[in-house]
Amino acid sequence: MQGFPGGVPDPQQLQATMLAIEQACSLIQVHMNPAEAEKVLSSLHSSLMPYQACRFILETSLMPNARFQAAGAIGDAAIREWGILTDDNKRSLILYCLNYVMEHAGSPDGYVQSKVSAVAARLLKRGWLEFPDQEKGAIFFEVEQSIRGMHGPNRQFAGINFLETLVSEFSPSTASSMGLPKEFHDQCQLSLEVKFLKDFYCWAQAAVFNTADEILNSNVTIPEEKACSAALRLMLQILSWSFKPTLEHENLDARIKSGLRSDAINLRKFERSLVKPGSLWTDILISSAHTTWVLNFYTTLRQKYSYDTLWGDSPIAVSCRQLIVQLCSLAGAVFPNDNGDAQIEHFMHILSAVILWIEPPNVIAESIRNGGSESEFIDGCHVLLSVASLTSSSLFDNLLKSIRQYGTINLLSALTSEAVKSVLDNQNEEETWGSDALDILLETWNVILGEACADKSPMSADGALAASNLFKIIVESHLKAAADSAFEDSDDAEYFHVSVSKRDEQLALYALIARAAADTTIPFLEQLFSERFARLSQRDVENDPTRTLEELYWLLLITSHVLTDSGEGETLLIPEALQAGFTNVVEVAQHPVVTLSWSIINFSRQCLDPGIRGRYFSPRLMEAVIWFLARWVATYLVPLDVSREIDSVGRHGSQHSRKLLNSFAWDNNQGELVLDFVVLMSMVALTTYQGEIELQTLTCQKLLASVVRRKHTCAYVVQLVVDSFRPQHTTE
């Protein structure tokens, strides 16, 4: 090839170099003398102008690993020697790598072709700011012809694979090191985005269109399916690009009024993001009904392979579904300025197709338990999270009502219920489809309920009922799991330890669901706790209290999350949902939060009796009690003075409920009694449970710390301690 660097090669030297590299690769494969073998390979990568030797190895060697090493050496040397290579040298290296990939597109050693393709992409980026656009266009013209299927499915796949590698090389998070400043990478990224990225998407789109009919009409797996899967992956990769923000006019007020919003924080937890390519992409993503075509293509494929329960995990199915999930995250100026109508219609089209992946939830879950694929279910959950992140809670709920007799929140409730059951049925397994789905679904609830709370707008009656029913299922399922675990001897049952952050995060999300329907869920918790508490006194009914104690342990944890927030490093306030609710409650004694609080405190007081403490209050149960009291005291016993805020918030009923919750702990000298009890209980924890480091740490750093947070409670406790040391006067 004219312009290929390295001078006139010596055939004998080329042969000797190839044999040395092949021998080194063989030694590494059999784990013999790896240090010496690595030294030989390193010498090739670091040698001056190794291009002719590497080319000889690529074209002559029968050993794939040797060819792989030769390709890598070309890339390393070219980046290192870029300054001394001529323009012809640089172009020749890039074109040689691309031609090699195309000529060997049908080779079974795909990893070698991928390596050569990666070298071509890396070198093209290195010269990106040097090469004129005309030269880049000439290179991409041949790639485009291959991607459009002009040279057969193998070259089509090779061309798509090259663009995948190129886009990855230009993305900041996956770019390889070149020893150049960040500004270089930023300029390359912006240039590719503005001048070529949309074209790449169109080429991939054309590849999918051109292969779709053959795939749908074929009864066997054909090479076109591999190319189609790769094209779908490339489209997904491009839509995952970090598009530069554009200064385009959007009627944000109109969009907000229609129920649209943009909240990408929750998507990032699952390595996803909003897709905001701007109005230049409207024609290929929105106006062309592109999303509808992709949805129909997947649905048709799904019907074709309905007999195959594992088809959902095939490359083409996975690629197509993930593209659909990403299309669900489209936002911003890519949609026309029509008060959000196009985006809402976009969501409805996607939801209408995706509903088949996740409904009915119980049937889908049973199919998965019987060996079916869970990937559709998981991707369907991702779609719901994406839609929730871009819509208000009311719009999210209404989207499904156009095709079903119930709202999206009802579906979300049913899905979450199945995920919870799956997790609890498979507690001994680290990663299950249920745990993955539950993480996504709980985050969706977090988005919905967080948005409703931020807008100070209560959830609809249907939504609140769905939340209430779901919370009851969650609690009953966990209580059963807690009781069933009562006699397990495993010390590794982290699921039921107070300090496990993953569990606490999950319980906090459960608590959000409970607060959305607090008027029913708080009395429900009080009923359950009272029943278990009463059961301990009826020893004739249950000889062994272990199961009941496990249930009480879990109820303490979930109730603590429902009644209080964690507030690490912050001043705790009574949760807004609890303050704003219960508008019909008049008497403090009838307030469900008050009733539940005193029920747990009365139970906790039992530990002061040595006999009861010995029978029931294990160190682990005491940890849960101390943990609950620490949060409860910080929230209800030492709250901020919020009287002014209360007077200016809400209706009369809401004001009354707020005042009740912010003052009930001190009514009728209750505060002093609670403080007395807290001090006594702390002494019990510190003196009776010697050696229980976690319990004593909780007592000192959480419970006692919360007591002394306010001046009036601190003064009372100090006086209490002083009085305890005064001599007792007796009368004769």
Automatic annotation (TrEMBL):
Entry keyword annotation includes Nucleus: yes
GO cellular component: cytoplasm; nucleus
GO molecular function, one term: nuclear export signal receptor activity
Compartments (UniProt record): Cytoplasm; Nucleus
Major site of localization recorded for this protein: cytoplasm
Keywords: Cytoplasm, Nucleus, Protein transport, Transport
Protein name according to UniProt: Exportin-4
Natural source organism: Triticum aestivum (Wheat)
